[in-house]
Structure formats: structure tokens, C-alpha cells
């Protein structure tokens, strides 16, 4: 069952803010972490960017990654995680893996 709009925005905002805090705390000296208007941008020294944002009409969180490309995630209420629309990968696992490829640091994103 799809999230209602209010709950979607609450969960998506919390997720994006938490990711921003964890990544900034762990890697903020090595890359630029910027959260504005609900859009999280993580910029590497090379200029490559990870972008995480919510997409209200579909009630999804979207990830754009220089490693894995674009992916979309639906909220799985049973597991309380954002799961890929194309498989069983979670947003946190994909982002952690992709960041590790680019930075050499594997983060536990929750």
C-alpha cells in the first residue's frame, strides 16, 4: 500500500536529512555535502555528483550516482527502508557502495 502524501514527505525528508548528516560527519572534509530544499548533493573533488531527492508524484526517493546511474526507491513499510523499484537493493546500500567506489570509505548508512 502506498504511503499517504504527508507520511511520504515526513519519511523522505527524515531519510535525506539523516543521510546528509552521516555523510557530512564522516566525509565532509573530503567532499562537499549540501542539503537545500530537500535535495542532497554530494560533490566529489572530481566534480562528479551524487544527488538524492524525493519525487512526490510517485512517492519515491531518487538517486543519481556517477557510479550506478539513476535509480528510484519505494518505501517498504514492512522493513522501513527505501527499496529499489528494479530489485532488492536499498537506497542506503546502493549509496554506501557507490560512495565507497569513489572515496574508498564504506559507510554504514543505517
The largest β sheet comes out as: 6 strands, antiparallel
Number of DSSP helical runs: 2
Give me the CATH fold name: Metal Transport, Frataxin, Chain A
Q: Please compute the radius of gyration using only Cα atoms.
A: 13 Å
Side-by-side strand order of the widest sheet:
1-2-3-4-5-6
CATH class: Alpha Beta
Keywords: Iron, Metal-binding
GO molecular function, one term: iron chaperone activity
Protein name: Iron-sulfur cluster assembly protein CyaY
Organism: Thalassospira profundimaris
Question: Which tags fit this structure?
Answer:
single chain; 110 residues; alpha+beta; six-stranded antiparallel β-sheet; 2 helices; Frataxin/CyaY_sf; metal-binding; iron
How do the strands and helices of this protein lay out in sequence?
Elements (H helix, E strand, L loop, with lengths): L4 H23 L4 E5 L2 E5 L5 E7 L4 E6 L3 E8 L4 E4 L6 H13 L7
Antiparallel strand pairs: 1-2, 2-3, 3-4, 4-5, 5-6
